[in-house]
Amino acid sequence: MGSPPLAAHHRELALGETADLEACSRGITWVRQALTDWDLLGSGQDALLIAAELLSNAAKHAGGIRNLTLTHYDGLLQVAVTDPSPEPPRLRAHRPDSIGGHGIFLVDRLAQDWGTRPNGGGKTVWATLALTR
Length: 133
Description:
Blueprint: E1 9-18, H1 21-37, H2 45-61, E2 65-73, E3 76-83, H3 103-110, E4 113-119, E5 122-130
Antiparallel strand pairs: 1-2, 2-3, 3-5, 4-5
Helix pairs in contact: 1-2, 2-3
């Protein structure tokens, strides 16, 4: 499920390939506002965590964040972050006692599905969640 079908709601936030943590904070605030506007905040708490993980991974490991996209359709919510690195994230063996390294593990556990697709020399990492009212 790389690209969502026609969306009931769709928003994009361009972040200009920034790698600073302020961009991560802006992105999380933006996701919270979109979920509030769509009356999905109560059922979309996992989306906030997933967005935070995808944003911080792009900032720390992939050269920056190009943009953040939210798409809501058919009871699903897709969070997608585009970065300039073509290297996909790898799900590694989880070590609960380690500091850090939990991002993609958490995305894998919380999302219904997730993956990557090429995007302009970089990639988009996306995660889809089922929403309950």
